[in-house]
Design goal:
Layout lengths: L2 E5 L2 E4 L4 E8 L7 E7 L6 E6 L5 E3 L7 E6 L4 E6 L8 E8 L12 E2 L3 E6 L1
Parallel strand pairs: 2-11
Antiparallel strand pairs: 1-3, 3-8, 4-5, 4-9, 5-6, 7-8, 9-10, 9-11
C-alpha cells in the first residue's frame, strides 16, 4: 500500500516562503511521476506542479516563477518550495503519485496524501 504524507504547511504572511515535503512509503518514487495539487475552500482541486521521474518540472501559470518542485529519490521524498506567497495561494496542498507519463488532472493520479494546510495572510 502506497502512503504519502505531506508536511510543512502553516500560516504565513504575504511575501513569505514555505517548503512543503511529501514522504512516500510502500513503493519507490524513482519510477513514478509526482505532482502537487491544491484545493481552496469551495473550489475544485487544481494542478500546481509536476516532477517527472527524471526531475523535469511543469508548473501552473499561477505559480510559475514562484514555486519550485524537486525530488530526492534516495529519501523517497518530493518537495515544493513556495516563494513570494500571496493570499490566493491559500489552500490545502496535496501530493500525488502516478506511474506513466505526466498528467495534470487529479483523476490521473493513483495515490494521494492527506494534505497540508497553507494559509497566507495579507
Amino acid at each position: 500500500q502506497v502512503q504519502l504524507v505531506e508536511s510543512g504547511g502553516g500560516l504565513v504572511q504575504a511575501g513569505d516562503s514555505l517548503r512543503l515535503s511529501c514522504a512516500a512509503s510502500g513503493r519507490s518514487i524513482s519510477t513514478a511521476d509526482m505532482a502537487w495539487f491544491r484545493q481552496a475552500p469551495e473550489k475544485e482541486r487544481e494542478f500546481v506542479a509536476a516532477i517527472n521521474l527524471v526531475g523535469r518540472t511543469v508548473y501552473s501559470t499561477s505559480v510559475k516563477g514562484r514555486f519550485t518542485g524537486s525530488r530526492d529519490n534516495a529519501k523517497n521524498t518530493v518537495y515544493l518550495q513556495m516563494n513570494s506567497l500571496i493570499p490566493e495561494d491559500t489552500a490545502v496542498y496535496y501530493c500525488a503519485i502516478r506511474v506513466g507519463s505526466t498528467r495534470y488532472e487529479p483523476r490521473d493520479y493513483d495515490y494521494w496524501g492527506q494534505g497540508t494546510q497553507v494559509t497566507v495572510s495579507s
